[in-house]
Amino acid sequence: MIKNPLLGIRACVFDAYGTLFDYASAAASCRDALGDKYERFTTLWRDKQLQYTWLRAVQGRHADFQQVTGDALDFALSALDLTDAALRKRLLNLYLTLDTFPEVPETLRRLKSEGIRTAILSNGTPAMLSAVVENAGLAGLLDAVLSVEEVGVYKPHPKVYQLAVDRLKTEAKAIAFQSSNAWDAYAASAFGMHVVWCNRYGQPRERLPGAPDREIKTLAELPDLVVMPRVGLD
Description:
The protein folds into two domains: about 140 residues, HAD superfamily/HAD-like (Rossmann fold); about 70 residues, Putative phosphatase, domain 2 (DNA polymerase, domain 1, Orthogonal Bundle), CATH 1.10.150. It has about 230 residues and is an alpha/beta fold. Helix 9 links the parallel strand 6 and strand 7.
């Protein structure tokens, strides 16, 4: 018996970076070059990457996620006095082959076996997402891979969440959205989606509009929260 499931879910839509793919794995592969700056570098690169998406969205000066990721990387390298051009190139290449969290393939397989559609909704560019999905062998487990480039603005703008509704041809309340980023989870909830917050990093709850419907520690818990659409819920 599933305890407190989300009913009427037809599609599960996932954030990519930090939710399906471990953004820290790129820096982890360069510990030899980063040394004792590894942890500070990992946090600074990620924080600045997100800040640049928000700031560009507010300014109405969009640049794609490949550029934003590179700009954030340059900031982090400069801040920590890391000047190796080969390291920069290595890190950017590794961002295209990020590690998948271990439970992800089986979670997607279980959802697909239950007739639930699966998709990614991400800040990443189509090329970045294609590379990381193919490297992880997830292409056959996803019905759609959606990039904010289709709407020209970053999360948490409502246009991004509307993209999933439009492309999947599924109303918001029939979508379960999963993100490890609390701000993303809250924004999707405020938009009208059901939300399962994958709180991998033990974050406190946000003080923002919306609220997750469920909170889990890994995506392995997700399939037990969603069920096949039932008669009368169409």
